[in-house]
Structure formats: C-alpha cells, structure tokens
Specification:
heterodimer; A: mainly alpha; MetI-like fold; 77% helix; flat; B: mainly alpha; cell membrane (chain A); transmembrane helix (chain A); transmembrane (chain A); transmembrane transporter activity (chain A)
Amino acid sequence: MLENFSFRTIVEYLPLFGQGFAATLWLSIVSFAGALAVGIILCAMNLQRSRLLQLPAKIYIDAIRATPLLAQLYFLYFGLPRLGVVLPELFVGILALALNSGAYIAEIIRAGILSISRGQVEAGIASGMTYAQRMRLVILPQAIRVTIPPLLGQAIVLVKDSALLSLISVAELTRAGQLLASDRFMPAEGFLTTAACYLVLYYGLKSLAVFSARWLGVRPIGSRT
Amino acid sequence: MIWFQLQSLMGSYPLALRGLGMTIALSGISLVLGTILGFALGVLRTSGSRWLDSAIGLWVDLIRGTPFLVQIFLIFFILPELGIELDAFTAGIIALTNLAACFICEIVAAGIRSVPTGQVEAALASGLSQWQRMRQVVLPQAMRVSLPPLVGQYVLLIKDSSVVSAIGLTDLTRVGWLVVQRVPNGLLVFAIVGIGYFVVCYPLILLARRLERRMSAAHGEVQL
C-alpha cells in the first residue's frame, strides 16, 4: 500500500539510481553523437540527385520510421550474434538508438536545409559560388539555426527511448527501478524514483530547447517529444 | 539450414497472426479512446480557464517527460497496490490511451490556437452559442491544421504498443521474442516482425505526408 511508501529504501538505493542516471546520461550522449553522424550521412545521400544514393537512404528512413524501436533493438540483439558479431548488450543498445534516431535526425536536417528559401541558393549561384561553397557559406549556417531546437526535441525522445535498453538488461535508470521493484517488492518506490530522474533530464533538455529557440530567434519545438 | 528454419517459422504463423491481432486491437482501442479523450482535453485546455490549462499542461509534461516503459510499469504494478485489480491487457490499454490523449491534446490545442480570433469574434457576433462556435467554426478549421500530425501520432502509437510486450502481452514483438527462442535466427524472425509493423504503419505515414503536402499547398493559396 502507498501509506507505507518507504523513502528510507529509496535513500538506501540512491547510489544505484545515481549510477543509473549517469549511465542513461552518457549512453544517451554517445548514442546521440552516433545518431548525428548517421543522420548527416543519410541526409547527404537523400539530397543527392543520383537515385542510386537517394533510394537506399529513403528506404532506410522509411523502414526505421515504420517499425518500433523495440523490434529494431531485438533485431540487433538476437541478430548480430547470428552474423558472428558478439557485442556487449550496452553496445547493441547504443547502436540501436543511434541507428533509430539517425533516421529521424536525417529528416530534421533535411527539413532545415529545404526551409532555406530558393532565392538564397540562386543568389549564391549568381555570385559564382560552387555547390560546396553555397552549402558551407550560405545554406548550412542558416539551416543549423532552425535545426537546433528540433534536434534537442529528438534528444528528449532518445533519452526516453533509452529506457528500452533495460529490456536487454543494460544497467541504466529503468533497470535500477526494476531492481528495487523486484529485490524489495517495492514497485512504487522503484518506478516513481525512476520517473523522477527522467523528469530531471526532460525538464533540463526542454528548457535548453526553449532557451535555444529564443536565442536563435526560431519557433520552439513541436509536439513530437 | 535456412529452409529448415523457414519451415519452422511457417509453423508458428497462427501465433504470429494472434500477435498481429493483439497489436491491432491494442492500438485500435486506445487510438479511439485516446482521440476522444485528447480532443476533450484539448478543447478544455483552450477554454480560457487558467487553472484547467496549467493542470492539463502539467499532466501532459509529466507523461511526455517519462519513458512509456516506466509508465506501463507504474500502471501495471502500482494500481493493484491501490486496490485496483487489472490484467495486462487493461493496463496496456490504460497506458496507451493516456499517452495518446496527452499528445493528441497538444495537437488539438495547437490547432485551435491557430484559428484566427476574428473567426471566433464573428461567430460571437452572429449569436452562436459556445458549443456551436466550437463545433461549426473553430474545430473544422482547427482540424485542417491538426490532421497531419494526428495521423503521424497514430503511427507513433502503433509503434509504442510494442512496449506492452514488457508486461507479458503477446503482441507482435512478444511473438518475435517467443519464436526466436525456438528458431535461433534473430535477423529473420525480427525482419518478419518488422514487416508486420511496416504493413500497418507505412500506409499511415504516406497518408500523413500527403495530408501535410495538401495542407501546405492550401496554405499557400490563402497567403496569395
């Protein structure tokens, strides 16, 4: 019953939650860096005129977006050993998160680049700039401005998605809650503490997103968080 | 080897169909309930009551700020402690409906806010009641803005329904998990699971894209 909600047990388990918090934080950062790399490559492929480059990127993005992360995670977790690649659960989890978020990030960057008005590109061409110069000097500096808030939104999604790694027994925040729930039969204490820790991360990232949107003078993040 | 595995997989197609049925039932029921609840919350949120607005806003933030897996665990393990007995299916429906309602509430509220105030004032001046204003003036216009993200949200909901496998419901993902214990070929098994989701989700993604394109085209006309 909730009347004997035990704060004492939570305090006892605080070191475990501290470790879980740190693990969630750094594995999210690593996955997000990976996702950025995947997203940039996919987006670059997607923006090419050559169908040979465009098509694989499009298929990949659609396949990721139309299937759940959990199925993708199990695909790698049960599938990689089949290919002779045996990785620790943690790496499988980071790989799954990076490959999943990468597809969404590719779309965010693409939307940012396409939001730059045609006139800017034409002005670049008229000034005799090459494609690379136009990209580097005209389009990207403006596109980065509009993509930062939605990228932070995607970071929020990624942090929350990382909870699924507990299902392949990666030691992170949700896992810490599960341990407390099963060791002491205290699900309320375990999962409410876990939820509180995620809320700290959520509000931190959210205020960062709102702040950056105001600072960059663009509209704040949409509803997909 | 692969033929043998394929044969073995063929044998588990009734299980796979049941899993697909469970996924569709779960997401279908909570999609309908979540849409109704989400619309109600969205209308309440923009009703002008400050207190209601911030109460709903706080709840939406709490749900958006925590992983769905944690929410499912909370509902499945804590409600029984409060004396509410529920099975995994009901817990899954409650969790998914709540999640859908929170996101849809935000989508609907954004749609309602996008309707110019002049429209509401015109409706007021024509002597329409509050209900008539909502139903005949505001909501039809809000729907045009809300429809594409709403369909996108349904896709997310169907995908999120895979997480309920964590409390033991045999949905499509859980079936994959069960089958892979017998047929040790994760690539094949989860590729098939993925195809199952793809068949359901991809048409919706295409629909959302088409709606979005149509809406931005319509928007362009208005601006001219």
